[in-house]
Amino acid sequence: MGRLVGLAVAVAGAWAAAIAVASPAAAAPAGDGGRTPLRVATYNVSLNRAQPGQLVSDLRSDDEQAANIAQVLQTTRPDVVLLNEFDHDDEGQAVDLFRSDYLEVSQHGEEPIEYPYAYSAPVNTGVDSGLDLNNDGQTGTADDALGFGEFPGQYGMVVLSRHPIATEQVRTFQDFRWQDMPGALLPDDPATAAAGDWYSEEELGALPLSSKSHWDVPVRVGSTTVHVLAAHPTPPSFDGAEDRNGRRNHDEIRFWADYVGSPRQSSYIYDDDGERGGLRPGSRFVIAGDYNADPVDGDSVDEAITQLLDHPRVRDPEPVSSGAVEAAELQGGANAQHDGAAALDTADFDDQAPGNLRVDYVLPSKNLPVRDSGVYWPAADEPGSELTGEQPFPTSDHRSVWVDVLVPGLR
Fold first, then answer.
1. Where do the domains of the chain lie?
2. How far apart are CA 46 and CA 85, in angstroms?
3. Contact between 155 and 83 (Cβ < 8 Å)
4. 323: how many CB neighbours lie within 10 A of its CB?
5. Hey, CA dihedral for 144, 145, 147, 151, is it positive or negative?
6. Which architecture does CATH list for 19-407?
7. 361: exposed, middle or buried (C-beta count within 10 Å: 0-12, 13-18, 19+)?
8. Cα–Cα dist 174/378, whole Å
């Protein structure tokens, strides 16, 4: 679920451009039949802090958690990786520090890794709405922010890449309003007879769909563009009978299903620059992120994540690990009641409800052949298990998920 603490107050007009360093990307490995292997990963790194600027300060002070996370990335070596729960700062200091002081420095003998290209931008978490969104009679709380949080930028996102990012073509959907999605699952106040009336007209006019943001980040792999579709929908919990978070989670996931669907399905969509429509048919893409929804277990609205897993344009590689199976067996509790395969779990929520779940996804388009996939969750007797471990986790309660695809085109 990943949302354990919160955020508030917005910086008006806050903006941070993509950080595109001019140094060349690392050479791609030899292709397969003229195609370039590309490893895409997602990792909820839990590098969220309680105060603005604290992550920057921690990264300047040999932060052990950040070093462990860097070691995981040096071990798995993704070419493109989305980091969820990485606090955003407008100057990009945290991103720069994490790259230069952690990823580009060997961690316990692992080979350093360089990401010359990065994209980061503002998110809705911690941006004060000025409204009483949770209907508790108060305003200005973390629950009243446009996305749950104590300060703007908490629980942010970063895309790191060894291949060039087409920054001028990035599309962001931070401001797309929830009410503008046709058939939106708007929450209902159970105390009234009216439908879909949890939020007032004023609140619906201000409330975005995305609890953080949705980004379409084009990455140039040789002569081919792969669109990294990044997001981190709200956990479907921490609410009441109105299920405002569960419904929002469902529709945040639906957004990408419509975006990669037919032009008719995506015609309602507009980005933060006012451009309308979704992804052009035939485009190659990878949907990545912590989607806070398990296809079988947990608290999400039924079939929330299957909107993507069963999408006709999307391939589900079903990455697995041995560590997830071991953890579910050892912890028992809620895990023993799960219907889903433990091998597919990507987050260690221990034996308490909802138990360990599959919530982190890397889902390529069907026109990107899959060569391999995995979840970095070693069993206790396997190398690297010290980087996952048990609570308090040395890295995060989520595990890194990666998929290897083959990208056609000239290198």
1. 19-407
2. 5
3. no
4. 24
5. negative
6. 4-Layer Sandwich (3.60)
7. buried
8. 36
